[in-house]
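Tokens for chain A. Residues wanted.
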């Protein structure tokens, strides 16, 4: 029989020929570089359009008027920034104390404690913070005539912020406690410690090392939420940054005071955010 012509059959691809042949189409790395280049070009085009089309003289006059900004100092620091820091610190302290209690109740073996903690957390996490401020400023005096919250505006603001913060911190603290290995409690109990002492001396210190970063983020949120203090009917000396900026913006007919107040918020929140990120990075390194 005649043998079939070897040249008419399908081509045989060997490992050597596959390696020598150029890849079909564009490589993944090449496509990625082109995609990033297109994104950068689009971003640069948008920035250039904003720079060229914006009315900079009008923006400078209404949002960055140096003459108006100079009139804010030093009161925006000694009054607005100081009060914001005080309201935030008081609210954080009350929220941390309340959150710890609610978290322990949430983990309690007694059903009534768990029911109360669950109801508290779901209620105050679901309510807008503005309603909590109105309840503290208006509802408490109406419900208990003749009753005043100690500390005046600071006490009212701290209580409103603390009630909301406690609900969020309770869940954070509970997660931190449950993240501690169960063997830590068992080892403490085997040494003769009571449950309460083991919780105070062994579990909680480890839990708080875990939850420091999210607690720092909660502090940043409370700093911004302190702007709702204006709904408490505060005096001129009790104004926080947002109220201070709004009042001066109305008097001057210019938006510069609000911009300066926003910069003052950044003076507080940016360092706290950087601290939270550093703590998170340190915690990840410690877990490796």
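Reply:
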């Amino acid at each position: 029989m005649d043998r079939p012509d070897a040249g008419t059959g399908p081509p045989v691809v060997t490992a050597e020929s596959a390696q020598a042949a150029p890849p079909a189409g564009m490589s993944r790395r090449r496509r990625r570089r082109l995609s990033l280049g297109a994104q950068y070009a689009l971003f640069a085009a948008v920035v250039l359009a904003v720079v060229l089309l914006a009315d900079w003289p009008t923006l400078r006059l209404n949002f960055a008027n140096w003459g108006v900004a100079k009139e804010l100092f030093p009161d925006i620091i000694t009054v607005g920034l100081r009060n914001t820091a005080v309201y935030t610190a008081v609210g954080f302290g009350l929220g941390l104390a309340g959150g710890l209690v609610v978290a322990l109740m949430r983990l309690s073996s007694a059903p009534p404690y768990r029911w109360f903690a669950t109801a508290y957390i779901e209620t105050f996490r679901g309510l807008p913070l503005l309603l909590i401020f109105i309840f503290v400023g208006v509802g408490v005096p109406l419900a208990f005539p003749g009753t005043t919250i100690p500390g005046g505006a600071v006490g009212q603001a701290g209580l409103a912020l603390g009630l909301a913060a406690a609900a969020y911190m309770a869940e954070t603290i509970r997660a931190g406690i449950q993240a501690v290995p169960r063997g830590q409690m068992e080892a403490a109990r085997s040494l003769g410690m009571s449950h309460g002492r083991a919780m105070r001396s062994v579990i909680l210190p480890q839990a708080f090392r875990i939850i420091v970063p999210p607690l720092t983020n909660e502090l940043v949120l409370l700093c911004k939420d302190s702007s709702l203090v204006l709904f408490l009917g505060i005096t001129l000396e009790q104004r926080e940054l947002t109220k201070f900026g709004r009042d001066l913006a109305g008097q001057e007919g210019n938006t510069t005071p609000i911009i300066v107040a926003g910069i003052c918020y950044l003076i507080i929140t940016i360092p706290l955010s950087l601290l939270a990120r550093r703590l998170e990075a340190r915690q990840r390194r410690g877990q490796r």
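Residues 75-106 form the longest helix (32 residues). The mean pLDDT is 86.
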